[in-house]
Fold this sequence. Notes:
It contains eleven helices and 13 strands. By secondary structure, the protein is of the alpha/beta class. It has a domain at 2-169 and 211-235: Rossmann fold (3-Layer(aba) Sandwich). The radius of gyration is 19 Å and the shape is globular. The protein starts with a strand and ends with a helix.
Amino acid sequence: MKILVTGGAGFIGSNIVDRLINLGYKVIIIDDLSTGKERNINPSAKFYKLDIQNPQVEDIFRNEQLDIVNHHAAQMDVRKSVADPMFDTRVNVLGSINLLQLCVQYNVKKFVFASSGGCVYGEQKVYPAPESHPTQPICPYGINKLSIEHYLHYYWMMYNLNYTVLRYANIYGPGQDPWGEAGVVAIFINKLLKNEQPIINGDGKQTRDYTYVDDVVEANILAINSPVTGIFNIGTGLETSVNELFSMILKTMAVNVKEVHGPAKDGETSRSCVDGTKANLTFGWQPKVSFEDGIKQTVKYFEGVL
């Protein structure tokens, strides 16, 4: 089986590529390296440096005869989507539609899409949120992720393109970029290792569902091998505040640093937590790595590379 992983040089995508190759799949990567890193590219994968909007992507579909597309390439910064919604829409909507059109044209069997449980629900009314929760995103990033979910339903109804949407919680773990706007776990650890002061946005009481990257990789493997079409939350169902996260990192690193708070950021929800029961009942997924163990593994990784 031959699988295309878009964004395969990024944090989550590269972890998925590594696992797929270990399982014996043939893997193709498309990544423009705007946020992905060349060092993340598995040497056993075939790599194309391209933007997913580029017309040359069709050559890959034509020549590689792909079975499955695992779509992780994205403009992933919520704050950038607020500052420049046009750019976010071009990359995340038009780029995705380009892939979907090619999937139909070249008979791809399945499309696995990385959506955002942290954004598509907006300000939640139920905690943790099931997939049936109203979707009222409050940032362009979430709006565009939800838009592609609707396009996937259309392509399934119109062209019988099987799909699985994975609505991620907040993913963290080894390999996450500590220099971007996304990934508060990596950002805090990086600053502490450099003896710099981390800044907590707002009052720090905002909560997130922190889910370890290995558990997310497992969800993708199960989705790739499942015949089921649909939308599934991927998260722990547990809320952790940014202040609690900061305290856990300090405890793990055995450092004593004061909390410093900055202004809150536009477009960010106050609480976010998703219910992964449906994924568990449908294809047997459940998170296995506890928050404490995940933070320990992430700190250990960054201590070794920074």
